[in-house]
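pasting for the record
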Amino acid sequence: LALYLLSVGSEYGAYMTLYLFVLVWLADTAAYFCGRKYGRTPLARGISPAKSLEGVYGALGVVLVFALTTGMIIGLAAWDWLALVVLSLVTMLFSVVGDLTESLFKRQAGIKDSGTLFPGHGGVLDRIDSLLAAAPFYVVGVKWLGLDT
């Protein structure tokens, strides 16, 4: 519902939707690679032992650069630029919560993968868990801050 509302909510809906997808994909990718290379401090050992605080820091850094670059490219005013950066960083944190929540559900169910459609990727839910948690917050933030006008 959040993605639908975002995509049809304004003339920039398609761009705002694409921005959200890229933001979540970049955050997931950066967290994975930074966590693998520098990960020392477990983020939530009991839920997902492979996720690290260093991975989250890497994701925050990449999302910060992405938001700053996007704001510069599209020529946002100072307030809108700041709003986009803060919204992007907090949205990324919600995506991490979504990822951890899905990991918790799998751990409680005693399963490693949520499906076999994508072998080696943990299932379909692992591909969209971050997006499911981040999208509602992002849409509310976009509407509240007026970034879709």
